[in-house]
Amino acid sequence: MKKVSLVLTGVLLTSGLCFAADQGVATKMVNPSTIAVKSSTAQGTIESISAADPTKNLSAGLSLRAEDGKIVKFLLATPAVYSADAKRLQLNQIKAGEKAMVKYSANKDGSLEARSIQLIK
Question: Which terminus of the chain has fewer CB atoms gathered within 10 Å of its CB, N or C?
Answer without folding.
Answer: N
